[in-house]
Amino acid sequence: MRHFLNTSDLTRIEIGTVLALAKQRPEALGWPLADYGVAMIFEKPSNRTRQSMEMAVVQLGGHPVFTRGEEVGFDVRESVEDITQILAGYHAILAARVLDHAVLKRMAATDSVPVVNMLSDYSHPLQSLADVLTMREEFGSLKGRTVAWVGDYNNVARSLSEACALEGAHVRLGCPLGYGASDDELSRIRSLGAATVEQTTTPHDAMQNSVSSPATVPSNPFNRERSSADATTWAQPGGVRTTTIGSLYSTSATHSDITRRNCSRGAIRSGSKSGIA
Question: Which residues are CB-neighbours of 77 under 8 A, at least 6 positions away?
């Protein structure tokens, strides 16, 4: 059984298939989730993720069931494994937005039904697919292009780096000292097929020749535990101006473009990762 916990769970070919499906209108995909339920567990709330995921499931013919984290109580009311197996009796897919990535791994280990990561402290794969789809629509193929991330190397940065590496892009990370990727992590990203992977503590260096101008950065590029003064000082040496990739969403791809279209009829029924969203 296939699950989608990290962007790197997909191959380069599978990401291409997913993004090709995402460009189609929902009606062209038929009703791959007809008569199926999709449980969506939000241990960590999100307005955008709930709205886009629920509409995605509906547009694919399925029935989404929103569940708050306290309603299931992972390892409080029942074990992660028991909760997963109970929900699998009702639903064809389990999607979870969790505080600890280990919860998703334990859910997937039961091999009951496909598990989808809507966000964890380790990764945010759906976000990375939406980002790459957006950049493809704005700039064309990412192969050989440079994609820059400015900010802490967090869950979103990890997933975006994986996606861009699988696309064959040059990955540049501009991270504050002490908040970057480890050497082992940089090597792992290179192994996924990135043209090159570089990390710097200088935003200007990371943004040079990147696919967007002034830069591709996260919507909240700094750890909330760090002071706003520290963030402002680091982000604007020499007058660096940054923008969020989210600004592209208003005219291009959104989470729902990925989540409602990733599930092709054949992919869902064969258990292909490219069909799990």
Answer: 83
Does 240 or 34 have the greater pLDDT score?
34
Question: Which residues are bridge partners to 97 per DSSP?
Answer: 42, 119
Please give the C-alpha separations between residue 12 and each of 15, 158, 269, in angstroms, as whole numbers. 5, 16, 21
- The model carries a pTM of 0.80
Amino acid at 173: L
Pair 26, 85: CB distance under 8 Å: no
Residue 219 DSSP code: S
Between the alpha carbon of residue 179 and those of residues 159, 175, 199, the distances in Å are: 16, 6, 11
Q: If DSSP codes are grouped into helix, strand and coil, which group holds residue 226?
A: coil
Look up residue 158 and give its two tokens. Answer: 């990890």
State what percent of residues in the chain have pLDDT above 90: 69
Cβ neighbours around 252 below 10 Å, total: 16
State how far the alpha carbon of 273 is from the alpha carbons of 2, 8, 11, 60, 276, in Å.
Answer: 5, 11, 9, 17, 5
